[in-house]
Amino acid sequence: MLQCKNLSLTCKDGEHERELLHDINLVIETGESVVFFGPSGSGKSSLMYLLSLLRVATTGEVYLDNNEIMSQNDNAKAAIRKKHFGFIFQQYFLLPHLNVLENVLVPENSISTKSKQKATTFLEKLELTACINKKIHQLSGGECQRVAIARALIHGPTILFADEPTAALDHKSALSAMKMIREHKGNGTLILTTHDTSILTGQERILKLEHGKITEIKHKNFVQAG
Amino acid sequence: MKNAKLFTALKYFKSNTKQSIILFSTLTISTSCIYFIFSIISSMLACTKHIILLPSEKFSYIETNQQLQMQDEMITKVKAFPEVKKTINSTLSGICFRSISAYLDTHVLTIPNPADLNYIANYINLELSNGRLPIEAKAEAVFHENILKNLNLKVGDLITSGTIKTPHLIGDYKIVGSFTGDLIIGIASAPASYNNNSSGIIVIPKEGKLNAINTKLKSLDPNGTRTLTYSREKSRIEIATSLPLIIFKIIGSAILITLSFCISAFSSSIYLKRSEEFGIMHAVGYDKSFITKLIIKELANLTCLAYIFGCAISMAIITIINHFIFSPKGQNLTILTAKGFLGTAATLATMFLFAGIPILRRLTKWNPISVIERRN
Ligand SMILES: Nc1ncnc2c1ncn2[C@@H]1O[C@H](COP(=O)(O)OP(=O)(O)OP(=O)(O)O)[C@@H](O)[C@H]1O
Ligand SMILES: [Mg+2]
């Protein structure tokens, strides 16, 4: 279970301070699929960063299985990310000096035959077999995104954060990427942001983020709104 | 291959060949410059020490002013010291030697008695490389090979006193031979009539008694007495080398500081550009100590490689310079020097710290997402 209490985030906006997220309370049960939905700039990515311990909130707490984790030290947080979290970044954030296969192996820090085999299978499923030995700068945006997906899944995270994981993909690849993400989620938790409602199955819990606040939306309303 | 790691110390450099070659060659060239500087300074000291200090480790010398009576008295006194193995009538003068740092006065011992001259030649393990030893009743001289090379003289030449090269030489001599060995000196004969005119005596100590003798020599009436002892020669070295050494040290330090600064700035700029990479690693779950260790390992590996290659290159260059420039002049740059290795290692370690500290300091203040989104 991932939970946040009274989460607020203020940012410097030139001279002013802007409250990006205001007093957010949220409980995400293990196994749930949650979608953050909202206009561009509403703070979806920022909220994901807070929940995944990549940023520190101005106020508030984050709990993982009832343990407060946001106030822990950097190394402890890194350990939690390594053990429990996978993150597909909106901007991919791949390592430019490594090739595709090596990027996928980053969370494992291993180039053993076994790890390589596992990574290769992931890349095959994402139709990246031809790119395995390419450098990142030789890839298209969609290919980068798929490499990022493979990297986030390889170590079998219990909570997967996927920030616009299909934004750079065509409809067909988007669907197959989402299929793979769901497959690997298993009993784990998926936390997603997207603008593309067509990749959703209808089983997700949808949370709308606007003006720094979260409102839960029933699926029907959401479809109407979308 | 079973437990092979993805992030190894040289992984980044293997994947960024161009950048690595630039960084590595800069480091290597700097290393060889540093080694060269240390080698020159230590060669300079070694050369001076060799020429000035070595003779006084073998024997001492004492002379008085010209009053014969006093001299006789003194000689009798010295001969009576229990630590004295032998005394030899001799006149000590000098000849110029242009060393790397300064003009040094090397010793020329004029010994009228041929038996004494042979004794000294044996005592200092002189090995003739050319010609023969001086013979009685003639003003002849043998010099260490290096002196002849240095002054551009050869066996058969006549060497006269009072020239630019021989301001302190007493008497004119025909050069009849050259020798090799530890002591860079000259040994000359003189007409037999000079025997009693020698201005001083060479004092050869019994095994291990040099210090004791020197203390006694010093306590003899110091007025009008000139002694050549180890400690006096040591202070002569200080005088001969202090100024050039200061200049060398200033120039050397300036070069070292500039080099270290450039290298540190250069490598830390490469590393700061890699902040994003480290940020991503941190975001994916590598803790800061892992990243810190990786950076230290990378820098250490690079520095060690540069150290080995840099020193090797420098030694090769010194060998070449020695062969073509110094050796023909009877001088030698020391190729393998502990000072060179240690000094270079210390400088590199300093660079390593200067390059590493800002990177690691920045790392501790990190918040991964602001690093990778470049919002710092
Ligand atoms: N460190 C920061 N300093 C200043 N402003 C920030 C910072 N981080 C985020 N912001 C601002 O906060 C707002 C929300 O950003 P965020 O990336 O969370 O939006 P988003 O909902 O993910 O948008 P999109 O749908 O376009 O990805 C943006 O206006 C952004 O400029
Ligand atoms: Mg976003």
Tell me about this structure:
The complex is a heterodimer of chains A (226) and B (376). With 226 residues, chain A is α/β, with parallel strands linked by helices. Chain A has 7 helices and 10 strands. Chain A has helices at residues 44-51, 74-84, 100-105, 113-125, 141-153, 171-185, 219-225, and strands spanning 2-13, 16-28, 33-37, 59-64, 67-68, 85-88, 159-163, 189-193, 205-210, 213-217. In chain A, the strands form 2 sheets. In chain A, strands 6-7-8-3-9-10 form a 6-stranded mixed sheet. In chain A, a hairpin with a 2-residue loop joins strand 4 and strand 5. The model of chain A has no long low-confidence stretch (mean pLDDT 91). With 376 residues, chain B is an alpha+beta fold. Chain B folds into 2 domains: 2-47 and 239-372, no CATH class; 66-223, no CATH class. Chain B has 11 helices and 10 strands. In chain B, strands 1, 2, 3, 4, 5, 6, 7, 8, 9 and 10 form a 10-stranded mixed sheet that branches. In chain B, helix 2 (17-58) packs antiparallel against helix 7, helix 2 (17-58) packs across helix 9 (288-326) and helix 7 (230-273) runs parallel beside helix 10. The radius of gyration of chain B is 30 Å and the shape is elongated. In chain B, 38% of the residues are buried. The mean pLDDT of chain B is 85. Chain A binds chain B through residues 49, 54-56, 74-75, 78-79, 81-83, 85, 87, 89, 91, 93-98, 102, 105-113, 151, and chain B through 1-7, 11-12, 15-16, 276-277, 280-289, 366-370, 372-373.
